[in-house]
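Wait, mind explaining this?

_____
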Amino acid sequence: MSYLSREAAPFSEGLWEQIDAAVVKTARNSLVGRRFLHVFGPLGVGVQTVPVDDADAVEEVEKEGLITTSGRKFTEIPLIFEDFTLLARDLESAKKSGFPTDLSRAERAAEACALKEDKLIFWGSKDAGYDGLLTVPGTQKVEKKDWSAGENAFTDIAAGITALSEKGFYGTYSLALSLDLYMQLQRIQPGTGLLEVDRISKLLNGHIHPARALGQGKAVLVASDEMNMDLVIGQDMAAAYLEQKDLNHSIRILETVLPRFKRKEAIVAFE
């Protein structure tokens, strides 16, 4: 039996294909971190740990005839999941009528899973010992002004780009910001005829990403090239069969993912 245990479900191959399509479509619409982080993988669900390097400090060290690698640690790839239930009577009704099965529960579970992934990317998990873009030590900081007034947002982000370039980070700059800040940028900047968000988008070559997972009043600018950071994927988001209980079917949406920050100064947090 495979890891996802689909053989145990009394589902047709066609129904699994419908579930997979619903999960993939929802994930693509919901995930934000993957829009700017390079994806490393999928490596397979059996890969449980990966090396996380401090790119500026990793080197081989010889001591007493033993060679080890400093600036490197091995970190477990956590599993993210969300469960949902398909009602047996609904499945039988769809089969008899020939209508498509209502998979809104699967879509909601995939959306919840995507939000958990983004929260891990941006915030990490203090209890589980994982860092996020806004919590990893060693990042650069820029004091955030009121982005609803004047050119504050533009000048703050320009200052962030300057901070990155002065540290030698070039290439792709990506901005993720909370939904409230994104809406504050939907205004015409006097004397330009342009929305503030459009000016900033041009500054970043279009790499601007509103993110629900950031909550309120938060923004982070990153040099998002693969040499600086990436997102490790073991098992990509998929549906697994859990059990039949009270005649209904329990299904789990799961994935294993880990953000890796190889050069901490490639991150600018606006505070």
In short: The mean pLDDT is 96. The two ends are 50 Å apart (CA to CA).
